[in-house]
Amino acid sequence: MTQDETGQRIAELNGDPMARIVFLLTDSLHHQAVLAGGDLVTAKRIGGSTLLAIHAFTDADNQDALTLLRALRNEGLRAD
């Protein structure tokens, strides 16, 4: 992609909250898979958890999605 195309894609991503969440979950899956290495059982569990998280957001109505996001935010702020 050209620099302009990359900028356009980033702008589209930043303008869509669901796309940002899916991107973050996918990025998390990638990094966790690297950590799992050759351990296929761990990689499968990580993948399953990430897919369940994506499903929880994409299948939720607006109120449920807000509740999930609020809970994630609260957990993130509570963590050391």
SSE layout and pairing:
Elements: H1 3-14, H2 17-36, H3 40-58, H4 62-78
Number of strands: 0
Structure classification = mainly alpha
What percent of the residues sit in helical stretches (DSSP H or I)? Answer: over 70%
Distance between the ends = 39 Å
Strand content: under 5%
Could you explain the architecture of this structure?
There is one protein chain. This protein is mainly alpha-helical and 80 residues long. The protein contains 4 helices and no strands. It has helices spanning 3-14, 17-36, 40-58, 62-78. Helix 2 (17-36) packs antiparallel against helix 3. The radius of gyration is 15 Å and the shape is globular. It starts with a helix and ends with a helix. The relative contact order is 0.08.
Main attributes of the structure:
globular; 80 residues
Question: What is the structure about, briefly put?
Answer:
The protein is mainly α and 80 residues long. It contains 4 helices and no strands. It is globular.
